[in-house]
Fold:
Amino acid sequence: DLSTFLTVRDLERAARPQLSPSTLGYFLSGADSQTTLRANRRAFRKWAIDYRILVDVGRIDTRTRLLGREVASPILVAPMAYHCLAHPEGELASSRGAAKSSTGYVTSTVATMPLERIATEFDAAKAVDAGPSAPRWFQLYVNKDRGITRSLIERADAAGYQALVVTVDVPIMGRRLRDVRNAFTLPPGMVAANLTDVAQGGKEAYHHAYATGRHDSSLTWRDIETFRTMTRMPILLKGVVRGDDALRAIDAGASGVVVSNHGGRQLDSAIASLDALPRVLEAVASRQSAGFEVIVDGGIRWGTDIFKALALGARAVMVGRPILWGLTLAGEAGVARVLQILRGELTSAMALAGCPDIASITRDMLVRA
Ligand code: HOC
Structure:
């Protein structure tokens, strides 16, 4: 009975023993000493909510706008690899869980289901919901063979994805010690379904083979400008932590950035994403680039974390590992439960803080803890 899980932590506690040590290690790990992994969580504790009293909160409205469209809430499912490690239906189940919760979903290049099937599943599940639209975006890893990259972009375009999220914090793979020690690999028969260019299987994890073989470490700003000319989809850069890089993203034609350090899985000792958010916003504001979206991910585990990110100025948040815990426990329904918990907690936080809508979650709602 999923209603007995009251918090994301409850789901995590129950999901962990269901996974093999190798998969659990892959999902949980940060890079090296995991300093950034921990810093992402700690950053939220540095802020306290300076609540208002005697505001009419009889109706709480979590709707907001994202890339010019109304969305039901400022929550998106982050792109994550290999959902079939958590549940046999993999991304088909997670995308249905998101769609039925009217929550935006970002399909990973290294999904274990074809991006077209994920799109169809998401749209079919969404059709039963009468609420505002939930976006469906595609995350891109760039291949050395730009023909393959072009084909991925064209497939995402053709499948009706509404934005391209280019990951820019993986010039090389971060070293996750548990993965090295466990010789992490995909089980026989499981593949990165959208990357049929590289022989898969064998004893080395696909993504290591991909990272050392086909993944392009020479990606630069010029490539982002090129991608801009290749698709109708707006482009967001994921993995930005510096103000000057956010400004360059605007110059390169991006429509937004995801302030992120890849869940602490890439550069260990990188700045926590929530700590990076204010300076990115400040830089973007200096350019007065209306409509440029700033999203944040990394360490979101409570509705109050979402509240804090929004108060600092983020347009929306991406949620990663909690989705995998829900998926592990109960597939689509588990993902929906995670999103219900987070949205419920956000709604409660808004009521208790005297913020009936997203626009009222302003910077003055936070003080240093
Ligand atoms: C470099 C090509 O996002 C993770 C994944 C990494 C997938 C890398 C694939 O494990 O954080």
